[in-house]
Amino acid sequence: MASQNTLQAALGYQFSDANLLEQALTHRSHSGPHNERLEFLGDSVLNFVVASLLFVRFPKIDEGDLSRLRANLVKQAALADIASRLNLSQYLRLGEGELKSGGFRRPSILADALEALFGAVYLDGGFDAAQQVIQRQYETILDHVDAKTLGKDPKTLLQELLQGRKLDLPVYAVVATHGAAHNQLFEVECQIPALDIKVSAGGASRRAAEQSAAELAITAINAIPQAKGQRKARARKSTQLSLPVAVSQEKK
Amino acid sequence: MASQNTLQAALGYQFSDANLLEQALTHRSHSGPHNERLEFLGDSVLNFVVASLLFVRFPKIDEGDLSRLRANLVKQAALADIASRLNLSQYLRLGEGELKSGGFRRPSILADALEALFGAVYLDGGFDAAQQVIQRQYETILDHVDAKTLGKDPKTLLQELLQGRKLDLPVYAVVATHGAAHNQLFEVECQIPALDIKVSAGGASRRAAEQSAAELAITAINAIPQAKGQRKARARKSTQLSLPVAVSQEKK
After folding, report:
1. Minimum CA–CA partner of A55 in chain B
2. Hey, which CATH number is domain A154-246, 1.10.1200.10, 3.30.160.20, 3.40.50.1700, 3.40.80.10?
3. Which of A154, A162, A245, B37 gives the lowest tally of CB atoms within 10 Å of its CB?
4. What ranges does the record give for the region Disordered, renumbered to this chain (chains A, B) (predicted)?
5. ipTM of the predicted structure?
């Protein structure tokens, strides 16, 4: 097991009570006090700190978008990523069964242990300490958050992309279903007539197939060297540049 | 509108920035900055503070029970109760439509405004201030929390009640359905043979009817002066008291 000092350095926090650190790293499959209560506490301090970071960083977006962003920043996969950066798997204390089945690589175990660590820091050092530790892990992530797209599903993104270009909404249609009732595969086509795009994708439900088709449609739009909508906008802009109105814009 | 000083006294907090207090009390139906972003922030600080209060107060219960308790303490009805105690409806700023339709009495509007107030206190005075304000509102409530039962549904409570007396689980059966398919009423019977209890209740779904029947069964059990299960246990105990084994128990 790696030295816990390395982990504490990566967290930017030195525990006064080493037992709390140890408990945070102990999965319930291991003997002794485990990390599940700390995880409960850590989950809630994490949610709050990320909420307040988003509140300050994005002063103009509404609470629905704040909720969407937060949900994505604290979801299991995001926490497992942070846990991996911290090499958390090297410090975990797991029972034999979990050890053999590779539990130290499991995203849920990593995410839970990370939350438990945040909870342990709060108990050990108070709210300011926990806030600093969490903020340190999220700084770079927040620098790269695209508040408009993060956590939106492909259908929503496609719709917004088309609305932004003042184009009609895409048209979805089930073109085929395969297989028996309990194990059907839906094939859905997504058409965007204005851009001559027609793609299709399969899925275990109509909704899943629509999302996959929307994803393909977005890829198709991005693959167009200059999308038709954009070409028009750019042409208009370059025309304006040679007119007085462009000069007045430069003065602003 | 009542004086905001009365509200601040009830909260135990005096705002430095009166605009934050005003915004927290402003529903989105009213003109000007409204309270929805503050509500997002307040919801998360509330969740965290209640989590930490429960963590400290109930050192033995597991994270599942902590989650259940918290969910019940921060649910809309619980928040609306606190808001009513604070006479929050007297301070709300609502649009005309909401005013006319009695929005100041609506639990969702009251609960949201209370959360927004907590968020505003955090912004105005920092975490410690928010923690104190929330703790003050929850002190009495926490003193009366029954950690074993709060937030459990009647079927679960009934099952635990019977298991505690080492009795068989209740038997549920749909005894009748009434009405057309889109508007059915289910009648469910709940039997506890060991206690000679047989009650029935109706509901819009099988599940709902079972829950109502379980609630009636609990009432029926509590109405028995001495439930049979208990009587047996007491009888056995009093028998034991006259035997050597009871003496050895007393020595422990």
Report:
1. B41
2. 3.30.160.20
3. A245
4. 229-252
5. 0.76
